[in-house]
Specification:
heterodimer, A: alpha/beta, six-stranded mixed sheet, four-stranded antiparallel sheet, B: mainly alpha, MetI-like fold, 9 helices, binds adenosine-5'-diphosphate, binds magnesium ion
Chain lengths: 250, 215
């Protein structure tokens, strides 16, 4: 019944989740192929964050199955921790470790989780920080950086674990407008390099230029999936038309 | 005659008794308090229940009653090789650990949830998240209340004097039986306690300023 193709990396099957009486995820079926970039879009409160968080089990689900690289999500403990190391997550509010320097933010996971030795971890961290354009900030503390710089460090921190897939939950929503592009550029480069990405964002430009597919969610359901061109120029569902007319108007 | 100089050896013995009781019980209470706080925020329900029961039981029992249990009941339940001093340390450290646990837990709650989520998404285990990310950030808020709790511990240790442990407060009993002026005895005992509590305050003020510099 479930045919799993060798290229499928993240598979959600019949996933349901409630917050009390609220049915936040309703019969979600979603398959993400290796190297694919999927943008998740939809009105506030439609369950996009919950979907992201369910994929690395920051939220538990009530029913259904989630597999990553053909392995079902483990329940708790060491197994789950190991899986999470393979799934990078970038948050809207950055969540850099406030008591650690930028460099330490990027080495900590490598050293404590991957058991990389300190020197190799620092070397890799510096390469990654250079790649996201904040190499000269390595010894500062997160609070000394601008929002855009912090978010790029957060991306480097996630990349340092060599994740199989990266989740982005509105990575630019907390940023001042002039800083949005520096973060989107890093993400675009990542997409070009072949990273598998699930990105919750309302940035059309990014969706059009980097995404293979747009998933539109409303009220806990996936209402429509299409290529970015199809979705933005010719949405099929009324919910999507309504939503697009609202966000395209400003 | 001078109470202090005539009985300096006795005062010194009492002073050291109080210092030993306080230092040992304080160290054990700190470790125990942090461990129980970890239990209370752990994802494992039995550990959470244990932590909650520990705090409720110890925080709501009068310390004197705990001393009675430690000194009179526990030896009958098999702990008959323990000295009065050891039993007193047990009572004091368990009692204080319940308060330290709650101070640490409130400190943990001041660290934003996002910090723990970021740590967990990197693949850190619960213990790593707590040890490397949460507790270091909670330390600054937790230091002042813990300082107060250790000062309270130093004063609470006087109860041990009533249970055959020689410490500062027992000095008073011995000397007043010898007919010294009771006010003078109390004055010197009080000064000795002040030395200990001022020392604890100073240590914690030092730690606070050091942490403030290191951000
Ligand atoms: N921890 C929670 N407890 C209760 N309700 C929640 C919780 N997190 C989210 N919700 C609710 O679930 C719904 C979906 O939230 P979310 O996934 O954050 O939506 P989105 O990211 O699309 O804005 C919202 O109505 C929100 O209020
Ligand atoms: Mg959201």
């Amino acid at each position: 019944m479930t045919e799993v193709s060798a290229t499928d990396l993240v598979v959600l099957k019949d996933v349901n989740k409630h917050f009390g009486a609220l049915h936040v995820l309703q019969d979600i079926d979603l398959t993400i192929a290796r190297g694919e970039v999927v943008v998740v879009i939809g009105p506030s409160g439609s369950g996009k964050s919950t979907l992201c968080r369910a994929i690395n089990r920051l939220e538990t689900i009530d029913s259904g199955h989630i597999t990553i690289d053909d392995k079902p999500l483990p329940a708790e403990g060491k197994e789950l921790a190991r899986l999470r190391a393979d799934v990078g997550m970038v948050f809207q509010s950055f969540n850099l470790f406030a008591h650690r320097t930028v460099l330490e933010n990027v080495t900590l996971g490598q050293i404590k989780v991957r058991k990389t030795d300190k020197k190799a971890a620092e070397e890799k961290a510096r390469t990654l920080l250079d790649r996201v354009g904040v190499g000269n900030q390595a010894d500062k503390y997160p609070a000394q950086l601008s929002g855009g710089q912090q978010q790029r460090v957060a991306i480097a921190r996630a990349l340092a674990m060599d994740p199989k897939v990266m989740l982005f939950d509105e990575p630019t929503s907390a940023l001042d407008p002039e800083m949005i592009n520096e973060v989107l550029e890093v993400m675009q480069q990542l997409a070009r390099d072949g990273m598998t990405m699930i990105v919750v964002t309302h940035e059309m430009g990014f969706a059009r230029s980097a995404a293979n597919r747009v998933v539109f969610m409303a009220d806990g359901r996936i209402v429509e999936q299409a290529t970015p061109d199809q979705f933005f120029s010719n949405p099929r569902s009324d919910r999507a038309k309504d939503f697009l007319s609202k966000i395209l108007h400003h | 005659m001078n109470v202090l100089l005539d009985n300096f050896a006795l005062f010194r013995e009492g002073f050291l008794g109080t210092v030993e009781l306080t230092a040992l019980s304080g160290a054990i209470a700190l470790v125990l308090g942090v461990v129980i706080a970890a239990f209370r925020v752990s994802p494992v329900p039995p550990l959470r229940y244990f932590g909650a029961a520990w705090v409720t039981l110890l925080r709501n029992t009068p310390l004197t009653l705990l001393f009675f249990i430690a000194v009179l009941v526990l030896p009958r339940l098999g702990m008959n090789t323990w000295s009065f001093f050891q039993l007193a340390v047990l009572a004091l450290s368990c009692y204080t650990s319940a308060f330290i646990c709650e101070a640490v837990r409130s400190g943990i709650n001041t660290v934003s949830l996002g910090q723990a989520e970021a740590a967990r998404s990197l693949g850190m285990t619960f213990t790593q998240t707590l040890r490397l990310i949460i507790l270091p950030q909670a330390t600054r808020t937790v230091l002042p209340p813990i300082g107060s709790l250790l000062i309270a511990l130093a004063k609470n240790s006087a109860i041990a004097g009533g249970f055959s442990v020689f410490e500062l407060f027992s000095v008073q009993k011995t000397l007043s039986e010898q007919g010294y002026n009771i006010f003078l005895i109390f004055l010197w005992v009080a000064i000795a306690y002040l030395i200990i509590t001022f020392f604890i305050s100073a240590v914690f003020r030092f730690l606070e300023t050091r942490l403030a510099v290191a951000r």
